[in-house]
Amino acid sequence: MTVAELFCEREKKTLSPYAFLTSQTRGRDYPHVPCKNRTEFQRDRDRILHSKAFRRLMHKTQVFLFPVDEHYRTRMTHTLEVTQIARIIARALLLNEDLCEAGALGHDIGHTPFGHAGELVMQEKFDPSFTHYKQSVRIVEKLENDGKGLNLTWEVRDAILNHAGSCMASTLEGRIIKYADRIAYINHDIDDAIRAGILSIDDIPKDIISVVGKGHGERINAMVSSVVEASTGKKDIKMTDEVGQAMNELRDFLFDAVYRNPVAKGEEVKARSMLAELYDYYVLHPQEMPQLYYRNTEFEPVGRCVCDFISGMTDRYAIDIYKKLFIPGVWQGINE
Hints:
The protein is mainly α. The chain has two domains: about 5-265, Hypothetical protein af1432 (Orthogonal Bundle), CATH 1.10.3210.10; about 270-330, no CATH class. The chain has 17 helices and no strands. The chain has helices spanning about 5-15, 40-50, 50-55, 75-90, 95-105, 115-125, 130-145, 155-160, 170-195, 205-210, 215-230, 240-260, 260-265, 270-285, 290-295, 300-310, 315-325. α4 (about 75-90) runs antiparallel to α5 (about 95-105), α9 packs antiparallel against α11 (about 215-230) and α14 crosses α17. The chain is flat and about 65 Å long. The relative contact order is 0.12. The model has no long low-confidence stretch (mean pLDDT about 90).
């Protein structure tokens, strides 16, 4: 018996009856030779972790554009925090940690540069139905690995696709990611907003603090514990009513105090304008895109291919390309 087979046998003996077992997977779109030392979901985790799209997350905005302080979260550090929270919940509920980890690592892999500002531009320029989670699935299916995709299992792709909004993943492990994502960004965005000087912990309504706690770790622990308490022994993932309501109120508070705050979002209009100009330029000059995206114009609309190219950019790369295309060379570097 291989190591991978031993792992699968251990799942059957130790995991909750509500866990999704690796042996139950619907499989991949394309056949492959099984790995002797890793289960299918462990293999997916590694494919995501070693992908170019995952590495680019380190230079993509979470909330604050162009942060000088290197301690602000990026899309990469956000993803790692989501993954850790998701694994803690999955372990406590005796669910499949490997499936949960793979889905969490890939949940934002298709996020645009400059956070949700880039997502709005793609909705305005390309398609109102564009979302980062649909783009994440497109990356792992069609764009990564020089257009071959990562050939991930159906369950991991389902978890990536359904981690946001009203969507619901088919597995409990996938549903955990939705909660882990919200727990992570609510709490680290508070931390970053305090660091930026646009928020004080004393600004948070006292009735919320009384439920989830004042400190960063205290709040995360309260929310994670709430999910574990409400979901243990059940075929669903949820939070206790009191903590769930407090978390939603805290999220609403952040929208008013941080996400729409002109200090945090003051440069967002410029970022959106820049991406819009880049989109318009490459629609007219698709041959100037990298070969991966240009060759796709033979069988897909040009706008779709331009959207793929821009969505994959890091903040820094988008700025550099913009300078190259629109800023005269003699002006570049002035006042730097």
